[in-house]
Amino acid sequence: MEPLYDNPTFFDKYSQMYRSQHGLAGAGEWPSLQPLLPDFTGKRVLDLGCGYGWHCSYAAQQGAAYVLGIDNSQRMLEVAKAKNNAPEIQYRRASIDQLSLPEESFDVVFSSLAIHYLPDYPGLVEQVKSWLVPGGDFVFSVEHPIFTAQGPQDWVYGPKGEILHFPVDNYFYEGEREAVFLGEKMVKYHRTLTTYLDTLLQKGFSLKRVVEPQPPQSMMNLPGMQDEMRRPMMLLVAAEKR
């Protein structure tokens, strides 16, 4: 089955997003995410779901010795190679949950807004642990459990189209959710905050930071951004392999 991000219509819509056009500077969570990242100097870095390769490029610019960007979308990788290429970066088309890599071959594993597309989170954590050296860093962002719980990921509106509130329902029933993004239906996986954090602790990681990012003041003038203060959309986690 063709990845949704390889669908020409969907990909064209995605390419018009503010964050797609402005890179890390256009990502509302970046001011909160950047401080969670480790020192990349001389490190081997794995980016799971690298998309346009913005984070791969950042790691290379910060002195990473080697960066491997993984994505299952050919269109994404083509843009990444055009926009964010450097001698230290290698891109590979693969599904994250089918990825096979040597044990202890990376110092840092990073993932931005990709893990909520995967059905087996505990299995992924096991894999990441095997890929990391002892003391290695695992930093990732996902859609917040409050955002994924109910499913459609849209506000509840009043009779005049005004936003009333954001629905949270079936929180403790983990699993598939059908969401709509850029007008297209897609499957995401809802997990509780306990699952995201306690799984890391049970699988041999130590938590370093947990952040629910707020939109930066510099973006408050963008359409809809002020409403992002009404509920969390993302969860940022930094962990270390014990």
Automatic annotation (TrEMBL):
One of its GO terms (molecular function) is polyprenyldihydroxybenzoate methyltransferase activity. Keywords: Methyltransferase, Transferase. It comes from the Bacteria. It comes from Candidatus Egerieicola pullicola. PANTHER family: JUVENILE HORMONE ACID O-METHYLTRANSFERASE, METHYLTRANSFERASE. This is Class I SAM-dependent methyltransferase. Residues 46-140 form the Methyltransferase type domain. Gene3D superfamilies: Vaccinia Virus protein VP39. GO terms for biological process: methylation. The keyword Metal-binding does not apply. Pfam families: Methyltransf_11 (PF08241).
